[in-house]
Amino acid sequence: MKTKYSSLFTLPYLLWSLIFIIVPMGLVVVFAFTTDSGQFTLDYVSQVGEYTNVLVRSVWLAAIATVICLVIGYPLAFIMSRMPGFQQQTMLMLIMLPMWMNFLLRTYAWMTILEKNGLLNKLLGFIGLGPFDMINTQGAVVLGMVYNYLPFMILPLYSIMTKIDSRTIEAAQDLGANTKNVFLRIVIPMSLPGISTGITMVFVPSVSTFIISRMLGGGGNLLIGDLIDLQFLGNAYNPHLGSAISLVLMVLILLCMSLLNQFNGDEEREGMLL
Amino acid sequence: MKWLSKTYIWVIMLFLYAPIGVLIFFSFNQSKSRSNFTGFTLDWYTRLFHNDLILQSLLNTLIVALVSSVIATVIGTAAAVGLNSMKKWKKSLIMNITYLPIVNPEIVIGVSFMLLFVLAQGLLGRINLGFEFGYGTLILAHVTFNLPYVILNVLPKMRQMDKYVYEAALDLGCPPVKAFFRVVLPEIMPGILSGFLMAFTYSLDDFVISYFVSGASSQTLPITIYSMTRRKVSPEINAISAIIFVVVLLVLLLVNFHGAHKERVSRREGGLA
Predict the structure, then answer these.
(1) Which of chain B's residues have a Cβ under 8 Å away from the Cβ of A14?
(2) Contact criterion met (CB < 8 Å) for B147 and A10
(3) Could you give the CA distance from residue B273 to residue B270 in angstroms, rounded to a whole number?
(4) Whether the Cβ atoms of residue B86 and residue A5 lie closer than 8 Å to each other
(5) Is there a contact between A239 and B118 if contact means CB atoms under 8 Å apart?
(6) Chain B: residue nearest A205 by CA?
(7) How much is the ipTM here?
(8) Residue A145 CB contacts under 8 Å (≥ 6 apart), including other chains
(9) Which chain A residue shows the shortest CA-CA distance from B225?
(10) What is the pLDDT of residues A37-96, one digit of tens each?
């Protein structure tokens, strides 16, 4: 369908994305580099340096959560992809069902389980263990991330693994490859695009979360997201510093993603995000 | 090997569902304790249905989700139709902008909206067009993050469509507008529908972006849930979880069975052909 006017259809969307995507993003950059009176300044960006420990903690916890998701999710995705059709559908549904519950509720569930006099401590008490301090620790934050974002790892892995032909694996086995070699030389290389999509889809929301850390990490385990929230809706109202931290977060994520793309080669990008 | 993978699946399912199970279990608990089950009650459910704040925020959520996903569907479908006939470089430039709200962390999007709206408040306030954070800001923000999902669902359908059908309609004397509604639209309808549904569900579920752009009078359900988790222990949250879980389960079952049925029908038809 090619008419003179057909590209006009895009116009409302272009206007919309100009006003509501480009301008707001621009504002973040402008706010990060200006003072209240509109003067250019690098103060706020350099002030972010004071929070290096929070930045490092965010990246570190998100990275641990991502690795755990990959380690747990990879075998599951592979097992799923080799199941008969109907079972695959059921499994997919079972994995997506918790995903459709609001993440606040999922995180709240862990809050009640990990509490000092929560269910887990009570169960451990029966066998004479504990009580342990589980909530308000970094471990709890990582657990919250893994629990919330594990499906985001499994789904892209699964969808790429269904494309691996079983005959390729059988051929490798026929030619004498053992299980280890089949995985190292066939399955893993062929699932690399799924691995990098999964890593992105777990890492980005983990590194920028502020709810999980607040609900499960207590006050002592602030992450970048909490810092940003504090500058905008918290007591420390300072949109300039908040914008500067947001900018740093975006750059951080871009860096991580371009690093990932190095391993990904020039695979087809289309539709990878969904 | 077989039993090993079976056990593995069971362990993961236990991990995924045990917390939700615990949550639902304690929604029937008489006391407020979250670890001691003292007796069965449905009190928390009745309280939930008499809690005006929760009912109001549920209504807000539905209004915002419906309005924003309809607007996003209209604008996004038009955009996909136009995009399909664009030059490659232009198209890929616009697609990169489209991916922005998906790749960017939610908190940054939320914060950037807040900056925009605060600025607009100041500027429009000077010419007496001031506004409060509320439905308006929520809907504008929701439309924006919904648009990519509509476009990404409709665009592939546009690409698959046989463009000669549309041209044939024109050749046979059909006016372009009518040809669009009679030929193109039915063809891309499945994409539009799934885009709409995706936008609607994302809208229902959104917390982070709404958190930064909602006013005191227009709280959505996730925001109300959040403030409930901050305040005090209340098994009403457990009751909400149970209801949401059941609703989601029913919807997924419905979609799945519908899908399975359609697949079977089309396979049978394919077998006959």
Answers:
(1) 79, 94
(2) no
(3) 5
(4) no
(5) yes
(6) B105
(7) 0.88
(8) A61, A62, A65, A202, A206, A209, A212
(9) A104
(10) 889 999 999 999 999 999 999 999 999 999 999 999 999 999 999 999 889 988 999 999
